[in-house]
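#onboarding

Welcome to the new folks! Below is a worked example of what a typical request in this channel looks like: someone posts a single protein sequence, and someone else replies with the predicted structure as tokens. Don't worry about understanding the tokens yet, we'll cover that in week two.

Example request:
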Amino acid sequence: MSTEATKISADSLPDKSIALEATSEPWPSPARAWYAVFVFALALMINFLDRGIISLLVRPIKESLSLSDIQMSLVMGFAFACFYVILGFPIARMADYKNRRTILCVGVAIWSVMTAVCGLAQNFWQLFLCRVGVGSGEACSGPSTYSMLADLFPRDKLPRAIAVLNFGFYAGNGLAYMIGGAITQMFDSTSVSLPIIGVTMNGWRLVFVVVGLPGLIVAAMLMTVREPKRRGLISANTNDSMKPLPIKEVVAFIRENRATYLPMFIGLGIQVVMTIGAASWAYAFYDRVFKWSAGKFGLVMGLLSFTVMPIGTLLGSMLAERFARAGRDDANLRVVLIGKILAIPFGVLFPFMPTLFLAVAVSTISLFFISLTPAPLNAAFQIITPNQMRGQVTAIYMFVFNVIGVGLGPTIVAVFTNYVFRDEQLIGYSLALTGLILGPLGTIAIWRAMKPYGRSVAEAKAWS
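Example response:
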């Protein structure tokens, strides 16, 4: 790397021979950086479209395969998260020294094909394994994407870049609602027989195929994105600056900074369990309580995902930038704390609204406030982590998100419904109880993280 590198003392690292490099090499051009964000956002859109479409297909899948709520919760959550337990960290470790663009491209192709294959499932275990396959591809996404973003944008611009990236998240969820509802109704009476494997495709099966295969186009587009040069590298007295760091050094760094990382990960996990649980069972709630059709629900929720939530995300990033300009090193977590505090009461109350309109309105307010948080929280982890650890720290982030959040979120709501309230019609009570218990706990965790996080940001300014 052709740079002027300044060796910075790394007091938080256990091996004092290791130093951090602050490079003076110019940042990539805005056009190149924002083009990468655009393509990453498309990949993220496909990611959440493929993973989220199943929440709109709960009823037809249950009826077709004779599944219980618990089995559906495992297919929606735990099956998707299984792969992260086994290979999520090794893939992220590769992203810390291999070509991140290629890793992301292969991942998009794998999860797109496996989403389409979900339409061939004939029983619970086949569908479960297909969802494991979807998770196997998506394990490549987070570590590669966020590591590259941190090398494309300076620290003060990173929250906004992640906010724009998150438009792909909301677009994916929006399309999952809109396309899922529309196509489910469109294909309800349409059948396509596959002569070689003898499977008749209709309804929910065709939905998986239609939303899965376009991801191959996005995988091809990723090959047009240039791999950015890495910044904030750790130098371990070796000529190979991209030599993978020993795992013990990564573990030691995180342990030395556990006062920052631990409450952040706890707060993230609690928030994701709550939000994924609510998102997974949202349509089931509106279907059972208000008899809302999949098409109408998908249209309304899709429009909200395209409008209200992106506005909240952009506002959250702008608020974080404003706090940072005011000299607050804890700017990102300060925004996360504000968003969580404002979202909790509305998230708990919406299931008790007497009318459909009020339920949607109160739920939308909660979603708006919680949408302030993703961009600052993602940026917070990248800012305080050296380059050769970013993929691995992001892997922990994705593990918490997918294994704890996606894995447990749908199941916790289902357990409350089946074993506490013992009535599928009382699913709203389960959603409210989940928010009432977990919301305050997650808020306390983020509050505990703010002061040590501010110190970590101050230290990171020397080497990023």
